[in-house]
Amino acid sequence: MTLGLWLERIGRTLRERLYGLFYGLGYFFNVLKESILFFKRRQVGFRVLVMQILFTGYEALRISAVLALAIGVAINLIGSSLLAGFGQGKLMYTLLIIVITRELGPLLTAFIVIARSGTAIATELGGMVVAHEIEAYVAVGVNPITYLAAPRVLGVVISMMVLTVYFNVFGLFGSFAVMQLLKPVAFQEYMKNLVEVLTVGDLLLGLVKSLVFGVIISVVSTYRGFAVERSTTEVPVAGIRAVGTSFILCIVADAALTAVLYLG
Questions:
Q1: Is position 179 within any domain?
Q2: Buried-most residue among 26, 85, 187, 212 (CB within 10 A)?
Q3: Per-residue pLDDT at 91
Q4: CA-CA distance, 53 to 216, in Å (whole number)?
Q5: Tens digit of pLDDT for each residue in 72-114?
Q6: Distance CA 174, CA 167 (A)
Q7: Are 129 and 228 in contact (CB under 8 A)?
Q8: How far is Cα 150 from Cα 49, in angstroms, rounded to an integer?
């Protein structure tokens, strides 16, 4: 390969990457604008919003509760057994707050939503593209971003925030109920130590993370769905790409928000 062909290939690749980046940013701001204006157009996509909340939020309650209980019980058992042996039993409550409300709560909730709703949104929209339903919307003057993307974005964001609060409740308080069967702890002592450690900032950080994760998951999933072109074989690929991209971006966003908290 000559130097000229090599430089041409690099230039073409760079141009395509930049085009994809700016196109993605344009799509993001367009979806954000339509999502903000959504409730001024209640007749447009309101049923889609309700169904998205039911699928993403309500139907994920069971797995979120089981996961939160398991993590909360594990931390309680480790803390009450190991840390108490070093005279640091109260550190268990600090670990509960850090792991559940700040870190794993929002992140594991995001993983649940990615696995269930991210793939569903991308494949559903991809199937609509292949079936020419998106073209039909455009032909009759309906903006697909307004009717299809915005309600799904709002539905995922609302569900993410509610599921994060739900995860916190089961992780912090539900695990206490399970612990009574394994290693009983006085309720007054547990609540006193937990309230002393828990701050409003801990809860707000978890909600901020869930908001950011919800935006990432929904925007990436709708983007990947609309990116399908003609073939039905592209539909499952869109779902896989939505999951992979969402996982990476959520982990990066989590690390960035945590760094801002501890280094800022």
A1: yes
A2: 212
A3: 73
A4: 16
A5: 888 777 776 666 555 565 677 777 888 888 888 899 999 999 9
A6: 9
A7: yes
A8: 8
Confidence of residue 117 (pLDDT cuts 50, 70, 90): very high
Nearest Cα residue to 174 out of 105, 243, 248: 105
In a domain, 5, yes or no: no
Asked if the structure places residue 26 within a domain, the reply is no
Determine the Cα–Cα distance for residues 193 and 40; give it in Å rounded to an integer. 45
Inter-residue contact 85 to 225 (CB < 8 Å):
no
Please report where in the chains the tokens 């609060």 appear, as a residue: 165
Q: Is residue 164 part of a domain?
A: yes
Q: Give me the phi and psi of 16, to 5 degrees please.
A: -65, -40
Number of structural domains in the chain: 1
Average pLDDT, the chain: 85
d(C-alpha 208, C-alpha 165), whole Å: 12
How far, CA to CA in Å, does 232 sit from each of 3, 144, 227, 239?
39, 20, 12, 12
Tokens standing for residue 245: 């991209």
Contacts (Cβ under 8 Å, ≥6 apart) of 239: 118, 119, 120, 122, 123, 126, 224
Whole-model pTM: value is 0.88
Q: Which domain holds residue 90?
A: 37-263
